[in-house]
């Protein structure tokens, strides 16, 4: 069927014929070839439900157990401490709502957390910890809020601080948290949303002091729809399930397991970790090439020193330019990047992260997040650099 | 041409996009997110965006959502609230056209390299005798030239109104023929950012304004006798010419003939007290050159009001014969024949 002689349902025409650059890896990454291959058997012959007793099920169970162990190695925990979920958002919700269900009390979260942490925290009772102008969580304020909560007779039950911010790429002082909380919230569980960290940092060591750690497969070459929450030590006796209906995942997350997803996630995690040092070295050079070029040509500003940020993060503000318009012009020439978060309608919303850093709404609307990944090439960076410089010049004309 | 089509998620802009695509233009659809916080309630709801996106997919064109909430809040909602606080009767749809669609969106389209923007308004833009003109839509019952009468030739030169030549029935039948999901969608009504009146709290104009400004009870006074007849709950919600909601009921044939917010009073009287000879206009605009005083025209003071004969004065228009007063804040559109010549806001 056609509308005006055009094929109905055809892909809209996009100017993607020329070179392209995918610089939105903080949103999602392309899947690793090995991860795709790893999951295929479980979409085909090895389709069993791991909960069954027969051979078909046992094969699936073996694969799931293997994946659990493989992911645990990367995350520096025991296999039995890995709870597979449907992704980072569910892991964050389980950490917060599950902890509060087991031990009611206020939670302490940073102002720059992902909405998957902020929203459930606010749904219970949250103290919001401010950040510095560079977007680093203020540990002094965090300690003070913990003291306040204690003095009010209701000590915090959970503290949640992300390892890497999804918009700015700023690394947070997660390792310092146990010491910071020692005086006024020694019993508070520590949750770390490490969703953005795994491609760049050794999550196992940096989050070693955390009781709960969230990760998401599609941020490091795995499939969408699968993630995990590490639940260990004292957290194991506190956290309660949020969903109800079955004994799977140590009775913390009911539902038939996503075997293919878990296997692919573990594969992607293992490969990402093995290649991490080399990836970080290479991507740091690419990021600097992109950022240096755009800063020089367009006068772009960086929200925080690069030393505070992970290798893949190239976050720039272009004074006098609407980020929304810049992204449209870039998209038309095959460059994919983004601002922070989108609302339900798909419109770009002012970033709560930049607002928390003291930026005005107008400044926030001038900033663009280019996020590089393990697959980013020099050609992509150079194409993006040209396209963005052209677009900025045009929008300022 | 490269055309950016403002797609509200309604049937008119859906068909506008399809017609332009059919005519061979390079079309990109954009839905303006104007209102609604995290919940996206009210104007440009998630459902409307989904409809617009679905239509764009069906036609085979790209679609974007533009966030203009800050501009809308500052340029349309804040003046709407302030006007009510001052006892005026604003027309936010006109201000949205003036400040958002044919200003912020048009500027953006320019910067992004589009040759024109298009909307689903029922009116016609034409180049006549070397100048740009705005005419009433072919479907006189659906004509929307009134809310576009604030546009100037410079803006009109970059605006396409593809459904202006069609009847609404034809628009709907085209949409149905092409399988667009918006084909049978009801026409939008009322002020988009004010939730429809309902039993739920927050619905209706009174609740919307009441949460933003202080609403004050007012005395209702008879224009002739000076007698106090009763009271109204909120003087800010009363409009000159209003008849409903007054003490004594409709049987009294009394109309609001004056509102004084500062004095918290509403003056009511017989309908002939509403009649006047002329209206003074502010924020006057001209589609083309300013026309000389005395030029004969017809004027229309509401979206579907009856056009009445008038002539231009130095400060506004003089009615051919005494006519109902126009509430302060309402737009008065001036026409010659079916062509808009300009507009102004009643003082």
Task: Characterise this structure.
The complex is a heterodimer of chains A (397) and B (347). With 397 residues, chain A is of the alpha/beta class. Chain A folds into two domains: 17-31 and 276-396, Aspartate Aminotransferase, domain 1 (Alpha-Beta Complex), CATH 3.90.1150.10; 33-270, Type I PLP-dependent aspartate aminotransferase-like (Major domain) (Aspartate Aminotransferase, domain 2), CATH 3.40.640. Chain A is built from 13 helices and 13 strands. Chain A has helices spanning 33-39, 55-75, 88-102, 115-123, 139-151, 177-181, 203-206, 248-251, 259-298, 323-332, 352-356, 361-364, 378-396, and strands spanning 2-3, 6-7, 21-22, 82-85, 107-110, 126-129, 158-160, 189-193, 212-216, 227-231, 313-317, 335-336, 367-371. Chain A has a seven-stranded mixed β-sheet with strand order 4-10-9-8-7-5-6, with helices on both faces. In chain A, strands 1-2 form a two-stranded antiparallel sheet. A two-stranded parallel ribbon of chain A has the order 3-12. In chain A, α1 runs antiparallel to α9 and α2 (55-75) packs parallel to α9. The longest helix of chain A has 40 residues, at 259-298. Chain A is globular and about 65 Å long. Chain A starts with a strand and ends with a helix. Chain B is an alpha/beta fold. Chain B folds into three domains: 2-177, HUPs (Rossmann fold, 3-Layer(aba) Sandwich), CATH 3.40.50; 217-269, no CATH class; 276-346, Elongation Factor Tu (Ef-tu), domain 3 (Beta Barrel). In chain B, the strands form three sheets. A six-stranded antiparallel β-barrel of chain B has the order 12-15-14-13-16-17. In chain B, strands 3-2-1-4-7 form a five-stranded parallel β-sheet, with helices on both faces. A four-stranded mixed β-sheet of chain B has the order 9-8-11-10, with no helix packed on it. The longest helix of chain B is centred in the first third of the chain and has 20 residues, at 92-111. The radius of gyration of chain B is 21 Å and the shape is globular. Chain B starts with a strand and ends with a strand. Residues 38-42 of chain B have low confidence and may be disordered. Chains A and B meet through β2 and α10 of A and α1, α2 and β3 of B.
């Amino acid at each position: 069927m056609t509308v005006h002689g055009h094929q109905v349902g055809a892909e809209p025409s996009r100017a993607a014929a020329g070179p392209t650059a995918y610089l939105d890896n903080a949103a999602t990454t392309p899947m690793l070839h090995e991860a795709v291959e790893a999951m295929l058997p479980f979409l085909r012959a090895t389709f069993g439900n791991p909960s069954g007793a027969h051979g078909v099920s046992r094969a699936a169970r073996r694969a799931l157990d293997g994946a659990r162990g493989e992911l645990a190695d990367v995350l520096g925990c025991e296999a039995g401490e890995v709870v597979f979920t449907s992704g980072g958002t569910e892991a964050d919700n389980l950490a917060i709502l599950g902890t509060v269900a087991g031990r009611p009390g206020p939670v302490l979260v940073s102002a720059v957390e992902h909405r998957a942490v902020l929203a459930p925290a606010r749904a219970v009772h949250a103290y919001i910890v401010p950040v510095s102008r560079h977007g680093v969580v203020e540990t002094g304020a965090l300690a003070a809020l913990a003291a306040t909560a204690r003095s009010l007779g209701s000590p915090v039950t959970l503290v949640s601080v992300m390892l890497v911010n999804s918009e700015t790429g700023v690394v947070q002082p997660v390792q310092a948290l146990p010491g910071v909380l020692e005086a006024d919230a020694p019993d508070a569980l520590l949750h770390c949303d490490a969703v953005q960290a795994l491609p760049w940092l050794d999550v196992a060591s940096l989050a070693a002091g955390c009781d709960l750690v969230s990760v998401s497969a599609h941020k490091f070459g795995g499939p969408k729809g699968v993630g995990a929450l590490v639940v260990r030590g004292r957290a194991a006796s506190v956290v309660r399930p949020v969903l109800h209906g079955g004994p799977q995942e140590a009775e913390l997350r009911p539902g038939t397991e996503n075997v293919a997803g878990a296997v692919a996630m573990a594969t992607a995690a293992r490969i990402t970790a093995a290649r991490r040092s080399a990836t970080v070295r290479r991507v740091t050079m690419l990021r600097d090439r992109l950022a240096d070029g755009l800063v020089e040509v367009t006068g772009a500003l960086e929200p925080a020193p690069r030393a505070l940020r992970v290798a893949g993060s190239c976050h720039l503000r272009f004074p006098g330019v609407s980020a929304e318009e810049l992204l449209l012009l870039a998209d038309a020439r095959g460059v994919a990047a983004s601002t922070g978060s989108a609302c339900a309608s798909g419109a770009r919303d002012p970033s709560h992260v930049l607002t928390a850093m003291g930026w005005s709404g107008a400044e926030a609307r001038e900033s663009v997040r280019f996020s590089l990944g393990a697959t980013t090439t020099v050609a992509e960076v150079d194409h993006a650099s040209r396209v963005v410089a052209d677009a900025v010049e045009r929008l300022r004309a | 041409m490269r055309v950016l089509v403002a797609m509200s998620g309604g049937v008119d802009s859906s068909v506008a996009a399809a017609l332009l695509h059919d005519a061979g233009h390079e079309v990109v659809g954009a839905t303006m997110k104007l209102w609604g916080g995290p919940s996206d309630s009210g104007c440009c709801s998630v459902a409307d965006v989904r409809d617009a996106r679905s239509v764009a997919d069906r036609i085979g064109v790209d679609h974007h959502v533009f966030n203009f909430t800050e501009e809308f809040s500052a340029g349309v909602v804040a003046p709407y609230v302030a006007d009510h606080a001052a006892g005026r009767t604003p027309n936010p749809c006109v201000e949205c056209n003036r400040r958002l669609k044919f200003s912020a969106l048009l500027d953006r389209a320019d910067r992004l390299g589009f040759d024109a923007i298009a909307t689903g308004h029922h009116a016609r833009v034409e180049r006549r005798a070397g100048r740009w003109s705005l005419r009433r839509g072919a479907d006189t019952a659906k004509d929307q030239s009134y809310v576009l009468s604030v546009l100037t030739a410079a803006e009109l030169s970059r605006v396409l109104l593809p459904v202006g030549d069609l009847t609404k029935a034809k628009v709907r039948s085209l949409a149905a023929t092409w399988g667009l999901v918006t084909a049978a969608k009801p026409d939008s009504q009322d002020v988009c950012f004010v939730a429809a009146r309902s039993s739920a709290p927050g619905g209706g104009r009174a609740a919307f304004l009441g949460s933003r400004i202080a609403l004050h009870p007012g005395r209702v006074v008879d224009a002739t006798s000076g007698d106090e007849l009763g009271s109204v709950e909120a003087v800010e919600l009363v409009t000159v010419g209003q008849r409903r909601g007054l003490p004594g009921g409709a049987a009294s044939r009394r109309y609001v003939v004056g509102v004084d917010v500062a004095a918290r009073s509403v003056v009511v009287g017989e309908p002939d007290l509403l009649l006047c000879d002329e209206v003074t206009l502010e924020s006057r605009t001209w589609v083309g050159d300013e026309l000389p005083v005395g030029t004969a025209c017809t004027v229309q003071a509401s979206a579907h009001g009856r056009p009445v004969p008038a002539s231009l004065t130095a400060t506004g228009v003089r009615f051919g014969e005494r006519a109902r007063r126009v509430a302060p804040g309402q737009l008065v559109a001036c026409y010659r024949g079916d062509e808009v010549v300009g507009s102004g806001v009643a003082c």
